[in-house]
Amino acid sequence: MSEYIVQTKKLTKKFKNQLAVKDVNLNIKSGKIYGLLGPNGAGKSTTLKMLTGLLHPTSGEIYFDGHPWTRNDLKDIGVLIESPALYGNLTAVENLKVHAKLLNVSDRRIEEVLEIVGLKNTGKKRASQFSLGMKQRLGIAIALLNNPKLLILDEPTNGLDPVAIQELRDMIRFFAKEGITVILSSHILSEVQQVADYIGIINDGNLMYENEIKKDEDLESLFMNVITRKIG
């Protein structure tokens, strides 16, 4: 595995006359948790969608594990962007079986990911009856089916209660210990500070800061200084 699981060079996305992401140079180290921070509408989701092939860059380059990104790399990437795409009338196992068939993954892997996300005992309960936290965990289980090297979670704590947030935090730490690189995007600074090793701060489509999180760093002050351009 390369030192960097993801690097981008002048990554840019333009929608008609709007420049949503501008010359972004990301450097995401393998096996680490990377927090992508920014206000709502800053360009976080657009950037992540380009990393996962959901959007095609207008210009720039993406490198995955040391080589130029291709769609073949999706086999090593797990993604949860926005709300998980679930079949409400199916159980957790049945939802996973749909995706496992597409990925040519065994039923044994289904049991493994259900264990990881704590949904092994949901039985015949349909996904429509799940709490928001359970739905998020099922979405993460789907993202883990292919044993990804990289897991991308876009605003995963939105709408979750404190207990579900703590469970998600513990899962993210576990993934990193297992050697999975995690990109976690959020506008909630405290959540990222508790789990991330590195952060990038994006505002108005520009990556304005990228560095390792220092112990006892005042992330709120750093964030405000960066987005008001006091730190380059």
Automatic annotation (TrEMBL):
Source superkingdom: Bacteria
Pfam families, per database record: ABC_tran
InterPro entries per the UniProt record, alphabetical: AAA+_ATPase, ABC_Gallidermin_ATP-bd, ABC_transporter-like_ATP-bd, ABC_transporter-like_CS, P-loop_NTPase
Keyword ATP-binding: yes
Domain ABC transporter: 6-229
Stretches of the chain forming a coiled coil according to its record: none
Keywords: ATP-binding, Nucleotide-binding, Transport
Gene Ontology molecular function: ATP binding; ATP hydrolysis activity
Listed PANTHER family: ABC TRANSPORTER, ATP-BINDING PROTEIN (PTHR43335:SF8)
Record-stated family: Belongs to the ABC transporter superfamily.
Cross-referenced NCBIfam families: galliderm_ABC
The protein's name in its UniProt record: Lantibiotic protection ABC transporter ATP-binding protein
Organism: Clostridium senegalense
Species classification: Bacteria, Bacillati, Bacillota, Clostridia, Eubacteriales
